[in-house]
Amino acid sequence: MAKTITEYVCQSCGHRAPKWLGKCPECEEWNTLAEETVKTTNSNRKTGNGVVDSKSVQPVTSVEALTQNRLITGIGEFDRTLGGGLVEGSLVLIGGDPGIGKSTLLLQSMGEMAKSGAKVLYVSGEESPAQIKLRADRLGALSDNLLVCSEICIEDV
């Protein structure tokens, strides 16, 4: 049995949404999203969900390697763990139990980067700027290049 996948496309700005919305979140026009059939799949298949186009699949050995610029954090073991530093434009998720030192590690590394001349933004969803300053002072990470803010909504950063 064939299954049709649809998207809703704003007729004003071209924004795509997986479900119908009364107001386009991109251009904020009302009643401009129109249904569009994206793909018909065979739902009898037991493997995969039909999202990956088989033409885009290729052996990893045929992919051209790119040179990545890395930002050195100034903390040797952390840099080694990251494969030689932070890759520009990347996102690194640091996880662990409460109190294990995640914020301390990040503030130390960001302080080192700021002292070396890089502009660094430290955004915390749990600590106020005043709390961050106290920790930075204790760690010797104070710098005019270290910018701080407290925000829990990533879209507002």
TrEMBL record:
List this protein's GO terms for biological process. Answer: recombinational repair
Q: Which SUPFAM superfamilies match?
A: P-loop containing nucleoside triphosphate hydrolases
The residues covered by the RecA family profile domain are 67-157
User: What terms describe the molecular function in GO for this protein?
Assistant: ATP binding; ATP-dependent DNA damage sensor activity; DNA binding; metal ion binding
Q: Please provide, in alphabetical order, the Gene Ontology terms of the cellular component aspect for this entry.
A: cytosol
Q: What Gene3D superfamilies does the record point to?
A: P-loop containing nucleotide triphosphate hydrolases
Q: Name one Pfam family in it.
A: Zn_ribbon_LapB
Q: Which UniProt keywords apply?
A: Metal-binding
Question: Record's InterPro entries?
Answer: KaiC-like_dom, P-loop_NTPase, RecA_ATP-bd, Rubredoxin_2
Protein name from the UniProt record:
RecA family profile 1 domain-containing protein
Which species?
marine metagenome
